Amino acid sequence: MSPVRRGETLSIYNRIRVLRAERGMSRAQLAALIDVNPQTVGALERGDHYPSLDLAFRICDVFGLPVEAVFSRTEFTPLSTELYKPRKEA
After folding, report:
1. pLDDT tens digits in sequence order for the chain, 90 residues long
2. Element (H or E) spanning 86, and its range?
3. 3-class DSSP state for residue 53?
4. For residues 26, 74, 57 and 18, what is the CA-based torsion angle, rounded to 10 degrees?
5. How far apart are CA 39 and CA 42, in angstroms?
6. C-alpha angle with apex 43: 53 to 19, nearest 5 degrees?
7. What is the DSSP letter of 5?
8. pTM (2 d.p.)
9. Which burial class, exposed, middle or buried, applies to 16 when counting CB atoms under 10 A from its CB (0-12, 13-18, 19+)?
10. Secondary structure E strands in 17-86
């Protein structure tokens, strides 16, 4: 079933801001690499704009990550939570 239902859209969350910061990259630098305006990068980071499939792939190519590592239909947990989860003993 399509995620778009008669005018209703589901949110798309992303880690663009975190990934850009990890790499010491400005919005303008990322924008130049993906061929958009820096304002578009800001709108994507805030969730004010959702990328086309082509733009999502271009963003993922810059970071060298698969789409599901950058975009999700559910909110991302903080990376520190994912990296430092308590170990379950067997």
Report:
1. 445 556 677 899 999 999 999 999 999 999 999 999 999 999 999 999 999 999 999 999 999 999 999 999 999 887 777 778 777 766
2. none
3. helix
4. 20
5. 5
6. 75
7. B
8. 0.78
9. buried
10. 71-72
